[in-house]
């Protein structure tokens, strides 16, 4: 299979002409990789937003890219295209080239470093460490391969963890834009209180066990506060806070806000079709394995959640619910 080309001021660069990917990264350094990073807590609509962004001709929706080396490629899990990832027309050549000329245990070393730097919020653990250097060099190379093969103006990573966002912000050659995606904690906790059986072909790699409401509330608050810290670090010109409910109510307007943040022009035809189809999201919610997706808000908790549980969650997370513009008396 032909190797993808990088670009240097309009001149094609063939990786075969260079001895290492460090040389390629150095040559393409004047053209940073534009990365849109979706940050927030689980069950907040990150997979849906990744799919919507990935429908745009200017963006490639990669899904939860953190999972590629953690478990997806190791277990040969399903890509959103319906193929196993080792047979996928996009990921198979990307990962093969990523592995090329690397020591035998490089993936284990990278996986360990990624786990250390990509936790929810632990800057002291990785700041200035060898783990960060390992994560940075291999992630930059992976993102360059993804960018070159997709040919898109931006890559979308919906891995969510604020710690990963902090590490990505330190990588030279990546132009990071953070989307802090939030959802009403009552909807999140209600979704997490449900159990699901494993079904690999439908994107469920393991059994999903129900989570206690207060556990979900504590984690929701913790992760969103860490996401706020990340946003302050990258600066106001590089982040946008957006609510899941607003994405569902006005997907076109939400996409335009994100595109404006990243400096990308959208073609209106890309989000007026009504139905959306995932392409190559490598990991994420089971939604990525569905076709003909129509955007609608999941607000079943409003009717199904007992009033006492709603009041409990409102009291526990009221300070953040108010900050994010959610009504208290529901």
From TrEMBL:
Entry's Gene Ontology molecular function annotations: transferase activity
UniProt EC number: 2.8.2.-
Coiled coil: none
Taxonomic superkingdom: Bacteria
Listed InterPro entries: Gal/GlcNAc/GalNAc_ST, P-loop_NTPase
Alphabetically ordered keywords of this record: Transferase
Pfam families: Sulfotransfer_3
Entry protein name: Sulfotransferase family protein
